[in-house]
Amino acid sequence: MSNKHTTINSQTTYTDQVFKVVHLEGHQILSSEFYDCKFIHCTFAESVFSDCRFVSCTFQGCDLSLIQLPGSTFSATLFEDSKVIGVDWTQADWNAATLGDPISFFNSTLNHATFIGLKLSGIKIKDCIASNVDFRESDLSQSDFSGTDLFDSLFVNTDLTAADLSRARNYQIAPGQNIIKQAKFSLPDAMSLLYNLDIDLIGDA
Fold first, then answer.
1. Which of 151, 143, 187 is nearest to 167 (CA)?
2. Does residue 196 surpass a pLDDT of 60?
3. What pLDDT, in 10s, does the model give residues 28-56?
4. Is 134 exposed, middle or buried (0-12, 13-18, 19+ CB in 10 A)?
5. How far is residue 202's CA from residue 205's CA, in Å, rounded to a whole number?
6. 3-class SS at 91?
7. Buried b (16+ CB within 10 A) or exposed e, 57-68
8. 137 — alpha (psi -120 to 50), left (phi > 0) or beta?
9. Which of 8, 55, 135, 191 has its CA 20 to 30 A from that of 37?
10. 171-192, pLDDT tens digit by residue?
11. Residue 22 in contact with residue 42, Cβ under 8 Å?
């Protein structure tokens, strides 16, 4: 990584750069590209990244609450120990070619996010807080939600084929309304799958 930067400009290409403790709340960044960049303890709350490109980037300990991402693309981008609250991910451009998994989240907060209808097979949302997140109509096959709190998140017509929800908790996933073939669940939280079926559970006499 080369020298640390304290600001980010529009229409600029950054390669192998470190952005440390950058504060750009409410700013607008247009048509910039970031390759193999690292963002450490930066604050981008309520900023707009319009038509930007992120490839093999890492956000560590950052605040990206309420950011907007119209037309931006992501390839192999990691969010770790970060706040990514209230983000509408449907604004981004997911049709562009990506390298590996487009985005991954580890130990981050994603509350009130929207992923409606996105094809994000293989997405990783591990050990996160993801409350009130909308995953309806999404392709989340082979995704990894292990250890994540999914309180009040929405799963309707969601493809969770071969998804890993081991150690995940507080989810409400109706088997009849979602595809959960070969998905992994852990007890006791997996009992919630039974509660969504039209059956009577009878305890031992």
1. 187
2. no
3. 999 999 999 999 999 999 999 999 999 99
4. buried
5. 9
6. helix
7. bbbbebbbbbbe
8. left
9. 135
10. 888 888 999 999 888 876 666 6
11. yes
